[in-house]
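Closing statement on the adenosine monophosphate sub-project.
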Amino acid sequence: MIDYPIPVLGFAAYSGTGKTTLLEALLPKLTQSGLRVGMLKHAHHNFDVDKPGKDSYRLRKAGASQMLIASRNRFALMTETPEQEAEFSYLLSRFDAQHLDLILVEGCKNIAFPKIELHRQAVGKPWLYPNDGNIIAIASDCDTIESALPQLNINDLDAISGFVTEFANQSTKALNTPSCDTLSPAYLSVEQGLEAILETISSPSQSEECQLHELDLRVLKAPIVSPINVPAHNNSAMDGYAIRGDDLGRDQYKVVGEVLAGHVFDRALNAGEAVKIMTGAPTPKNADTVIMREQSTQNGDIVTFSQQNLRAGQNVRLAGEDLKVQQRVFDTGKRLRSPEIGMIASLGLTQCSVFPRLRVGVFSTGDEVQAPGQPLKDGAIYDSNRYVLISRLQRMGCLVDDLGILEDSHPCMVSALSEAATQCDIIITSGGVSVGDADFVKSALESLGEINFWRINMRPGRPLAFGHIQGKPFFGLPGNPVAVMVSFLTFVEPAIRKMQGESDWQPLKTVAFATEDLRSRQGRTEFSRGYFEFLPDGRVSVRTTGAQGSGMLRSMSEANCLIEIAPHIDCVKVGECVTIIPLQGRI
Ligand code: AMP
Ligand code: MG
């Protein structure tokens, strides 16, 4: 459901039903009852409130991407959205909700929020309500129909106004009282789940010194301050001739020496002199300008330059232009990858202080789960989750303990998990946390510590167990392999990054337009496996990778992104924009 501080109510109908006429007649009744009403109307894509010739129109056409026009009585903000249509929640955020009691919406059919369906027989269109769980009442000119929804006469404005007023009052009350549904530990949104997890996870405190060769993927414990200038000396960025910048414009120069990288020319350069110089070689004293070899002709010890517009200081890298002595290079919490390791080496350092590597214990669970290597037993499946998790964890720089497949027995499970908790910093299992699972999985976990069995409003990956065993974070992921990967990306990866000491990590998200209809369900986050690509016109499109069963790892292997459909969106139509989470480097 949309998250908004005041009630939002829509009117859904086919065109020709008379939505606007009804709203026009309804509004005076609502305002008489004391409601301050905002209206949001979704219109055809090339509508315009402005008129050609008006000043605001001219200024917009001249390039103003936002145009606010104001007078004593009203103001209007017109915002151009040529790239993509503004999202419903963004549009709502444009209202000044503090000065409203209710927002009525005309249009926005495929967004999930409460709506009254308007229906007139003469229009000859089908009903919407059987396929739309957001319809909370029907107003029509039909005799009573078979539906549990409240039914109103479309011509009885007092009845409709009474219903709307009651809806506004009830919703306002509900918005001001925390509902047990949103706070229940058993049913969480993706954001609530992640927040609850991250809240209980602390950043590391220990540190260790680590050599350059071992730094890949480690996280800095202490900031790095540059002990030197990088580069240490002014040096040439080209093969060519070094001269004095205040000595440009001569017909010719005398070549008085040559300096190669790693060597120095040991006297100051005089006017009329040049030194042949190689890339990376320190520029001689006074020589602050280099002319490329391609623009030079040397005859004996005389050099001439073909290029006329030479600039003093050109082609010289200045000492400290990359990093200055005493400059803070990296802060604590920085993840070290190739460029960072190169920069640390360029400072002359051989080691630095990092957080210890996380040790992660990984189990699979389930009597049907069999390790690869032997012929498959009746009713069994090969264990894939453990190998998925181990590879992900290794690529995040963790040390992994492969703890095998947990036997379906209470005592075995209790002893294996508590032993894992003594040696590992974090424990991850897959399988055995959904509603229908063997009870002893849960009872074993319950007897080990405070483990919450959540249902996350997401697909795939609804069941999730999270808690602590002997103080060590424990994740009980679902069993289906795709659900394992999506839950890992959504909950485990951020938690591990925090435990590794990495600060401010956020997954990369962007938008693409859908090339196929994408269905979701109101109230849950839908993660489909997608493939995005750049089109020749520069736009980014996305499609799904075919069948999306949560057991089908192939859908993940063929994907380069997850498509994330937020809980308040019911479906995404071809051409509409949708959030994507690129997966390069994350799967
Ligand atoms: P569960 O949540 O335990 O009911 O498991 C859901 C589905 O995931 C079942 O079809 C299991 O067979 C499957 N599954 C559980 N663990 C694994 C595993 N380690 N590798 C592959 N599939 C698994
Ligand atoms: Mg199972």
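Confidence is low (pLDDT under 50) at residues 179-185. With this model delivered, the sub-project is considered complete and its resources will be redirected to Aim 3.
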